[in-house]
Design a protein that fits this description.
The chain is 30% helix and 19% strand. The protein is globular and about 65 Å long. The strands form two sheets. Strands 6-7-8-3-9-10-12-11 form an eight-stranded mixed β-sheet, sandwiched between helices. The chain has a four-stranded antiparallel β-sheet with strand order 2-1-4-5, covered by helices on one side. It has twelve helices and twelve strands. Helix 4 crosses helix 5 and helix 5 crosses helix 6. It has two domains: 203 residues, P-loop containing nucleotide triphosphate hydrolases (Rossmann fold, 3-Layer(aba) Sandwich); 123 residues, no CATH class. With 361 residues, the protein is an alpha/beta fold. The N and C termini lie far apart (44 Å). It binds adenosine-5'-triphosphate. InterPro entries: AAA+_ATPase, ABC_Ni/Peptide_Import, ABC_transporter-like_ATP-bd, ABC_transporter-like_CS, Oligopep_ABC_C, P-loop_NTPase.
Length: 361
Amino acid sequence: MSLLEVRDLTVTYANGARAVRGVDLTVEAGQKLGIAGESGCGKSTLALALLRLLPAGTEVTGQILLNGEDVLGMKWGRLRAVRWAGASIVFQGAMHSLNAVHRIGDQIAEPIVLHKTAPAGKVKARVAELLEHVGLPAARAQAYPHELSGGQRQRVMIAMALACAPDLIIADEPTTALDVMIQAQILRLIEQLVAEQDLGLVMISHDLAVLADTCDRLTVMYAGRVVEEGPARQVYEAAQHPYGKALSAAFPRIGDPSSRFAPQGLPGDPPDPSDLPTGCTFHPRCPVALDICSSRDQVLVDAGELWRAACVHVRGAEASSVPDTADAPAPGGASDPDPAAAPANEADSAGASGASVGSER
Ligand SMILES: Nc1ncnc2c1ncn2[C@@H]1O[C@H](COP(=O)(O)OP(=O)(O)OP(=O)(O)O)[C@@H](O)[C@H]1O
């Protein structure tokens, strides 16, 4: 039994926006899964859906199994227990998630008291232990959120997430608001705690480099769908989907100083989830789109060992039914020698494919 199994998850907000569409995910115990995609691709919606934290009126279909238990079918009381003790979320921007008028020790104690994960007389000691675990002095329990730095507040959020000893941590852009040095510290802390306690991790970020460095597996989302998934380092270094390639090229490459100051941007923006393009939703921005891409979406097909991508250019996709593929560029092909040089914003490549490219950001 997997720690987390998500099958055909679709989330539709009350305004009709389908922010998550048919997503499948699996996280094994102790495994670290990264979910990447630009802002608006549905990553946070997916994270919130996992613990049923979406606003009332949102329609969620599909299946979410946490330790084999059906989260979407759970009664309210069971769901409350599962939210801290089964899986917990570290949100982006700790200042907004912490209550400004309560001492942080009291806030960390709250889930412990609620779920009775420590005897009443031992709650304070447990809070002190958790603070020290995340690298803060126990005395900081007396502090209010505004008395802490951004990095310290994020450490408090991590302490809270660990308070009831969950099996799974969901970290939604846990370092976005922090400067680079502190980001690295927080990422190392998360890695260390997850390894020590053999926790599962779902880490969400727009930064593929961070995810490749931290996670075992990587899922790339675009317009609410998974367009690529595979071993983290391999997907980062040689993404098979043009979107994965562009995302990877948009961030400095780990250990490659030459790319540090020359990240490539991806022109345009993800589509509005209430008004999605036909066919492959990436086709209006795709530098290697074929005519067929505007009318036919691609399913995920094998792109390597435990590696799948949903692009007509991936070997094994429905290439036989696609006209004129022989002349098309093959950026997603397994033999592409230089994924860092993905033609995400090469004008001639876009022109050759007839793709319409959106405005530069
Ligand atoms: N409550 C809501 N009602 C309607 N649409 C929403 C709501 N919340 C999010 N959306 C839309 O759903 C889409 C996905 O948003 P989501 O926040 O999940 O993306 P994301 O990839 O996590 O981006 P970010 O990193 O900016 O949070 C966006 O188009 C967003 O505008």
